[in-house]
Every structure is written in structure tokens, then in C-alpha cells.
Amino acid sequence: MPLLSRWAVRLALIALGVGSTLGALILIQKGLGTLPWAWSGLGAHVELMLIGWMTQFALGIAYWILPRLPGMAPRGNPILAGLAFILLNLGLLLALLAPFRPWPWGLVLARLLEVLGLLLFGLAIWPRIRALKP
């Protein structure tokens, strides 16, 4: 497994752990009513589970498992793919911090970074998506 995929999967597993913990706290509040502050973590829970866990895990595995290219760079441009993962995680981090900052455009910028990261990842792996030759 390439280093970039290992990092993406590790970060995805961290997001899964933190997001699941937030979800468990929200469920405890819903059932017992003992943690009234837990509902403030709902947005972070959703962000961590959808972007941090599912999306990042899928991209990390896709980078590893898609067919390799012939030549010196079998997985395409690693700098472009690395930049894509960096932008995705910067967007995730900004989305987690946006509710605590007074800047109203924080969440919009977070989404733009995430989308740009996804587009760059698509551009990085595009040459690897091809039909098998019979």
C-alpha cells in the first residue's frame, strides 16, 4: 500500500473514532438527557463521518487499488494526489472549527477546499481509469 493511502486510511480511522464518539454522546443525551451540550457536536459528527471517514477512506483505497500505469509513476502524479488529500483535510479541519470562529465565510471556504481536493484527486487518478484490454 502506498504511503499516501496509508496516511489517508489512518486519518479516516481517526475521524471514525472521533465521529463515533461524538455520535455516542449525542445518543446518550437523546436517551438520558444528561449531556445537554452534546447536540452542539452534531455538525462535527456529520462532517467527520461523511468527509473524514467515508470519503477519505474511499479515496485512500481508490488511490491504492486502481490499475497502475506503466512507467516511472505507476500511480500518476503523487504531488497532485497528495495536494488533494491536504486540501480535503484542511477543508475538514476548517469545517470543524468554523462554528467556533466569528468569521461567517469559514464554512463556505471549508466546502470549497473539500471540493477542490476532490477535483484534484479526480484529476490525479483520471489516467488510471481505463477499460481492461481483452
UniProtKB/TrEMBL annotation:
SUPFAM superfamilies (alphabetical): Cytochrome c oxidase subunit I-like (SSF81442)
Keyword terms, alphabetized: Membrane, Transmembrane, Transmembrane helix
Transmembrane regions listed in the UniProt entry: 7-28, 48-66, 78-97, 103-126
InterPro entries named among the record's database cross-references: Cyt_c_oxase-like_su1_sf
Name of the protein in question: DUF4345 domain-containing protein
Organism of origin: Thermanaerothrix solaris
